[in-house]
User: Fold this.
Amino acid sequence: MNKYPAWLNVLVLVVLLTGILLAMPNLYGSVPAIQLADRLGEPVTETQLQEFVGTLQGANIEPEAAYLKDDRAVLRFETPEAQTAAGDRLRDRYGRDLNIALTLAPRLPAWVRGLGLNPMSLGLDLRGGIYVLLEVDMASAINKRLESYQQDFNGRLRDARIRNRVDLDENVITVRVADSVDYEAALSIVRTADSEVLIADGTDDKSFTVRMSETQIRARQDFAIEQNITTLRNRVNELGVAEPLVQRQGVDRIVVQLPGVQDPTELDKILTATATVEFRLVDQSGNAPGSRRYPGRGQEPAQILKREVIASGDEIVNASAGFSAEGQPAVNITLDAAGGERMLATTRDNLNKPMSTVFIEWREETVTRGGKTETRRVKSEEIINTATIRGVFKNNFQITGLNPIEASDLAKLLRAGALAAPVYKVDDRTIGPTLGQENIDRGFKAIQIGFLAVIIFMVVYYRVFGLVANVALLSNLVFIVAMLSLLGASLTLPGIAGIVLTVGMAVDANVLIFERIREELAAGTSPQQAIHSGYDKALSSIADANITTLIAAIVLLGFGTGPIKGFAITLMIGILTSMFTAIVGTRTIVNLAFGGRKLQGIPV
Assistant:
């Protein structure tokens, strides 16, 4: 009785050894490092890596290690001073072509990296880094959608040969037809375009107004947040920074955290940049409805452009900096299917006519009025290029009229995606690694104190069985660290609190089992039967308690943000690993120690 088959004992041993292997990278700690990533997204090669090392060695700076990881070069250093000096040297030499980020990297031996093992990532509160809080301009998001409606309604009415005028003023679209006999037809066309908009009669029988419903407004706001989160993640990835966190906070704010990064130079520019482009036909007659004059950048002349947008930045699926056939800096553009179809139709119908590229950018300006200083956002729209359509093209073409740096930056932004609405910075903080280390030390001290107290209690109260529980408890900590490392989840200070909580919960399951064994022995049951009954009868209570806690952790993970998610993740992992170690793990040890032989008593 109380014997596992040999295959199950071997399986438990394999699981334990695997957990130790996965957790092992966390023993090596982190050192200052620099990550280098190509601005155009190309993978860094081994030849380039050796060139970087040679550049530093020429300046008497010796990296502690240099290797490639995730298409980036990683250079590790012994001291922060060496890291800073190396960063300055590399920026002077490669700053135009590479994204160079100061960060922290694990001090893993080459053989551990060769196995693809990584330590668990540490959150901003433990590792230090940069924290930025951004607010999304929801008014611009709504207005952009209304402008899209305005253009769509105008195009549909024009295709139906209904003379019209569509105006947008303060979130209200006014549709006016030239003849009252077209009123009902125009009304039907707008309703067909979008059945959810709110339509009301105008002041006469030739006009009506269109508004977005509350449901549409909320949906547009959610879209703006989610699209901006996706875009910002792409932009942060362009920086070549590992383990970024970009997530929603509240109704209209986004949090960006870059653990381990101490250099915010490049970050501000790329996070809040709203540069995009639009392609419009030049209005050569100068009197097309909705046409207006756009200024030119530099030597580029101003032009009167048509209102209809052929394609815009949010329809660009790829962009890369390069040079045109004439040797000018250029951005190579690839459009999605919808944008490509419109570009095809436009170029086919407008051969030998001019088309302009409009560069659109939001920027902040500080003005003083009445002795008060305020910051306002200003939209800049400039023509950077006007070219005559000489042939029919669809998805692929070039933008010129930029200098090399502008072409590289624009390609990066377009490749990452256009923001659905402008964002501006509400708060930013740089958290030093010293504070992070202090938090780590306090957190691990809490774990050590809690762990030691539990070990002493279990040994004193349950003797040999207490030692078995302590082995399971130690294994549980190893499994938690292993799972965090395997899943790439970030450990935060609340996450450490979750680990401390699971320490108590893990031993609680063994307490239930051992108390049940004592009750069976007190009732006169044989030692082997008492062990068997103790594990079997306590199982339902352990499962019920852990499942209910697991449900609560899942709810926290689903609805919580930031620190709450960190707590929920470690709690969930801790529940699952503690059930394995407390039920299967301790049962394996007890079976090996006491199973299959006649016992006069057991030390519990």
